[in-house]
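Case study.
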Amino acid sequence: MSDQSAAEPTLNEDAQRRFPVPAYGDLPEDLRERIDEETERAGFTPNVFAALGYKPSHFRAFMAFHDALVEDTDLDREEVEMIIVAVSGRNHCLYCNVAHGALVRIYAKDPHLADQLVSNYRTADVSDARMAMLEVAVKLTEEPDGVTGADLDMLLEAGYSREEVWDVGAVAAFFNFSNRMATFADWRPNEEFYALGRGGE
Amino acid sequence: MSDQSAAEPTLNEDAQRRFPVPAYGDLPEDLRERIDEETERAGFTPNVFAALGYKPSHFRAFMAFHDALVEDTDLDREEVEMIIVAVSGRNHCLYCNVAHGALVRIYAKDPHLADQLVSNYRTADVSDARMAMLEVAVKLTEEPDGVTGADLDMLLEAGYSREEVWDVGAVAAFFNFSNRMATFADWRPNEEFYALGRGGE
Amino acid sequence: MSDQSAAEPTLNEDAQRRFPVPAYGDLPEDLRERIDEETERAGFTPNVFAALGYKPSHFRAFMAFHDALVEDTDLDREEVEMIIVAVSGRNHCLYCNVAHGALVRIYAKDPHLADQLVSNYRTADVSDARMAMLEVAVKLTEEPDGVTGADLDMLLEAGYSREEVWDVGAVAAFFNFSNRMATFADWRPNEEFYALGRGGE
Amino acid sequence: MSDQSAAEPTLNEDAQRRFPVPAYGDLPEDLRERIDEETERAGFTPNVFAALGYKPSHFRAFMAFHDALVEDTDLDREEVEMIIVAVSGRNHCLYCNVAHGALVRIYAKDPHLADQLVSNYRTADVSDARMAMLEVAVKLTEEPDGVTGADLDMLLEAGYSREEVWDVGAVAAFFNFSNRMATFADWRPNEEFYALGRGGE
Amino acid sequence: MSDQSAAEPTLNEDAQRRFPVPAYGDLPEDLRERIDEETERAGFTPNVFAALGYKPSHFRAFMAFHDALVEDTDLDREEVEMIIVAVSGRNHCLYCNVAHGALVRIYAKDPHLADQLVSNYRTADVSDARMAMLEVAVKLTEEPDGVTGADLDMLLEAGYSREEVWDVGAVAAFFNFSNRMATFADWRPNEEFYALGRGGE
Amino acid sequence: MSDQSAAEPTLNEDAQRRFPVPAYGDLPEDLRERIDEETERAGFTPNVFAALGYKPSHFRAFMAFHDALVEDTDLDREEVEMIIVAVSGRNHCLYCNVAHGALVRIYAKDPHLADQLVSNYRTADVSDARMAMLEVAVKLTEEPDGVTGADLDMLLEAGYSREEVWDVGAVAAFFNFSNRMATFADWRPNEEFYALGRGGE
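After joint prediction, the assembly is written out as follows.
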């Protein structure tokens, strides 16, 4: 047995409760590569990868969109994560609240912000511009047909560029998808996510 | 100038109202290829391609997911489109109601089904299994945290396979994303979609 | 067999699904006369007449109010139909969406307006005054106790007369009744309504 | 001047607050006759007549439907009034709660039933059959598209005839209209209605 | 048998329907003393005392808070009762609507105000300041996380002191508790409350 | 100056943002005693005591009810805290989510349960009986008039005694009060609460 095989990630069997979790070794190579990268970065394999491994075509497309949202944007990463958690709080999504809550704590270097966003985004200690951003993201979540041009203008006036406004909408909209997948399949957050970033590190 | 260049698609300037629509010639080659294919198939360029052209990374990931949903599934294409329209009706999404309404009429060879689904999925003339499918899709849309294992069991008992149940959830969830993008950016359906399939063709 | 009896309208047995549809010949004379007129005008017997034939006293009173709403008003007929479809979209009423959708297309000479109104009245291509009219009609539908004097003032400022404002409220209110009757008894739109006015004729 | 003209009803100027109340003498003769009858029966002119006098064509059609609902039905009058008040409570309609609350007290000979129905129909001291009737009426009010054949079957099993089931739906639906007219125009209950039937008389 | 024992209050067995009502004689002395006082004041024993007698520790704490709310405040007693009834109307609480409705009639010397507040606080004939007070109380009831600093500022501008604003919030919040206890245990109003204050006395 | 005065607790000035926080030394003696006890027990002064210090009569009554709920009950303390957090999650209450979330972690010796309850009580890893308990508590929160005798029977069948059922209702109801006070006055959780019990200690 080689060192490499010893280092193979093990996918958490409890990653989701309503669909099977595949064995790492049964996954297509491109999925294994992505999982290896994420595992090395995080120190554990986030359960979303184990869950989506159930359907590789969905794994690939989901990650392609996720990557576009966080990489091809002028929004700060902490802004992206803040939108995600504010939206996920409203949609009552355990996985996203906990996993992206950890990312909010880490990117914003703030151990309290995630719990504020999950509970009630209006209590978050953020700038006025970011509060406007959250307000529009939550409105798009709760009453999508109520969003009007005036909401977008508010973001432009708050200093966001036209393309950043698109990105605010795209992140909020995408996590209305992700939240529903997570709740539908009953994705469970890794234990590590609950504690990460609590020290403000 | 060749005949080919004369046939270049023109993107509808009114494809979306809150963000610019790019010129076809300014798009990356892979987007142009996809648009060419769609334009040839449909006889016109559906406005979703013009709208998403605003942000090519989002265009690519969106289409990758869309393709996975309609191609890598044992659900009938008409079932996929039925879910989309039932969900889009609840989310008050003009673009998806009209564009996917046309697809429902075409794939189901039924000129009335789309209007039934947009109005109230419970009035649709469909089998009991498909009504159960629509019920779960709409519940996931309106009250995602209310979906429980019992809802998934209902679909298994109705005859859907485990993976088809995943796909029902994935289609419903994805169009909660798509509906919100369309409403946020104010995507407008092509005129052609309103009329397509009305004769039961 | 005389020409007359050959021309007798046949009431659609599928006009409603939760109550019997009477035979034309069994109806009181005044109902038959009204049905004859409507059938001659439309070229078919709209199912609402077949459905309400179940209870002649309700047929008469319903039509009396309908006639007052469309005849004794300074609102344009297309405005009346626009209110009806915006309200019926919110109430998820198949019959009214489809039957009055056809009337919107015909009276407004616009093949797209009805689908806009059913989906989300805010996407309708109408004047600011008519958008205000639709906003108040939908508010009266969804949150009647939230309508205040300020809403009526908005309509007066948009150029509607005091009596036209009354009529906006009356049409919206009446179709909150009609929508519920249609859904309760499961009225089905005639096939003809789905297609009428699609060519902008 | 004759004794008769001295007895002419005076319409309450505060009958509605957002539209003018006409003078009795300016009303068409058929409206005056109806008002005379009602005034003699009640001992005062209920404000709904003064309010609807603003638009005689609506007055006539409204009363025609009202009369059909209470006269052409096998439902007990107290059942009709119970439905009205349960529906009006949900729609937060002051006029109907107070005016029809008085009628509930009088027809049911129960000084407490109206307040129970306005507050929460589930607290009403009524038979199981009538509780089923109220449940369906309130569901049709709050979530009309959620009413299914099973709801109607429940009423049939509770002992209501097919036509009585229609009437339950029709009364509930009609007062969704009436409640909205009353709130829109701000109809005010006559002082007399607040107190009528409080003694169980 | 002494005169005193003859005067002992009898607790209404129908005071609540989902938990037992204790016998007066079985209650701790401090509860009996409080009940004696209330009974002497009102002329009957309000059912809330009989109901809460089921759990003396809750009786004591409930009454302690109630007393603080009505005694330690610069709000008029009629303002306190108006808030209670507006909140209780929204929460569909029979007991509080009827019992505190009586108190509204008595303290405001207005036989109609309670029914206005139960039905729809916006129809109440009150000053602008009190309407603002009711608006905030109802918002805190229906959408607590939507209350912002701007709502409190509105009350300050309407003339309420900082501490009175706290009291508006505290009364509204406390009756969100009381309403839920009453509905949970199915507290029934005493017959006396329905009629009290109807004459404007 | 004695050692004792050096140990005097300092009330957090940011304990609430919409009302002043009193100085410890200005509080009545009984409040100071309670604060001393709590401070000694927790190692810091929970902000709820600082906030309620604004109005001592409310401080006393609030704590009296809180104490009755946690001391005079056969429910386990962890059950009481679970109800509180499930209810507070629905009411979007930051203070209660964070402060009682810490207590859930400590009493249940489970570092993950609080985040599950805040996000979506249905994801909590608890027994069937406790899930039934949470379901009724949340229903009483979201739709109080929808709670019926059948809900209470479900708890009895799950093994709770009659008095424990009362207590489930009382805890849920009381925190509908507490959540609204906290949101109204903008109570802020102490920093310590965010981290407490995260290690499963």
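Observations recorded in class. The first helix of chain F runs from residue 3 to 6. The interface with chain E takes residues 17-20, 54-55, 57-58, 60-62, 64-65, 67-68, 71-72, 91-93, 140-141, 144-145, 147, 149, 152, 162-163, 166, 169-170, 172-174, 176-181, 183-186 of chain F (CB under 8 Å). We will return to this complex in the next lecture.
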